[in-house]
Write a structure and sequence with these properties.
By secondary structure, the protein is of the alpha+beta class. The chain has 2 domains: 65 residues; 113 residues, Barwin-like endoglucanases (Beta Barrel), CATH 2.40.40. It contains 2 helices and 11 strands. The strands form 3 sheets. The protein has a 6-stranded mixed barrel. It has a two-stranded antiparallel sheet with strand order 1-4. It has a two-stranded antiparallel sheet with strand order 2-3. The longest helix is centred in the N-terminal third of the chain and has 40 residues. About 24% of the residues have low confidence.
Length: 186
């Protein structure tokens, strides 16, 4: 009797395991479709996740994809260079040395470390940071620039230094090097 029951039990266990795998795959596919639909509604919303099953490809060209734990919102500027969120409470204020950069330079791809395409979205507010000081995905407020997302890194950006994205080269050069205070929002 035991020899007859054993294959039946193994079959039921295997069948249950396969159903769980199929169910999990369907959930991941549904989440992926939902994230892609949200990205189409708002192309500045980037989905990043360290779970390989939840990877979202931001650009179909050459497989550019990034992983983050939470959605990151890149910000566009208002007419006066201030983002809408400028009056929100902030977690802390830090003093940094700031310079500016542009996506329109020789050898620049225009795509940030987190996958933001600055050539296709020149009005986004993005800064390059040292991720050990300001984690990628952090929202910051910069007086005169507005609310931006820490979405890039740079080889010279170490410690309390940031590089502010400007949509044209002249503005980036005119910005120079400044010591400023920035507010960490999230």
């Amino acid at each position: 009797m035991k020899t007859i029951m054993m294959p039946a039990i193994l079959f039921l266990i295997a069948f249950g395991f396969i159903n769980i795998l199929i169910s999990n795959h369907q959930v991941v596919q549904a989440q992926s479709v939902e994230m892609k639909e949200q990205h189409q509604e708002d192309p500045t919303l980037l989905y990043q996740n360290h779970d390989i099953n939840k990877q979202i490809t931001l650009k179909e060209k050459k497989g550019v994809s990034r992983f983050l734990k939470t959605p990151v919102q890149a910000h566009t500027s208002s007419e006066k260079g201030q983002a809408i969120e400028s009056k929100k409470a902030y977690k802390k204020e830090i003093t940094v040395e700031a310079t500016a950069y542009t996506a329109y330079c020789e050898g620049c791809s225009g795509i940030t470390r987190t996958g933001i395409n600055l050539l296709e979205n020149p009005n986004l507010k993005v800064i390059a940071v040292d991720p050990n000081v300001i984690p990628l995905g952090t929202k910051v407020y910069i007086e005169g620039y507005g609310t931006a997302v820490a979405g890039d890194i740079g080889s010279a950006i170490k410690g309390n230094r940031i590089d502010i994205y400007m949509k044209n080269k002249e503005d980036a050069l005119d910005y120079g090097r400044r010591t400023i205070k920035i507010k960490i929002i999230s």
